[in-house]
Amino acid sequence: MTDAVPAQPKRRAYTGWRVVGANSVVWSLQSMIWVQGYGNMAVELRDQFGWSKSFLSFVYAGTRAETAVFGPIQGRAIGIQGIKKVMRAGAVIGMIGFLAIAWADTQAEFVVAMLILALAMSLIGFLTITSATVRWFERRRAQAMSILTMGFAFGGLCAPILVWGFARIGWRPTIIIAGSILSCAAWWAAAIANRTPEDYGEPMDGLLEVDTAAEPKAEGVTDRHYTAGEAMRTRGFWMISLGHGAALLVVSSSMAHLALYLTEDRDYSAGRAALIAGLVPLFQIVGTALGGYLGDRMNKRLIAGIAMLMHGAALIILAWVEHVAAVGVFVVLHGIAWGVRGPQMQAIRADYFGSTAFASIMGWSQIIVTMGSIAGPVLAGVLADSTGNYQLGFTILGVTAAFGVVFWVLAAPPSPDDNRATIA
Question: Domains in the chain, ordered, with CATH?
Answer without folding.
Answer: 15-423 (1.20.1250.20)
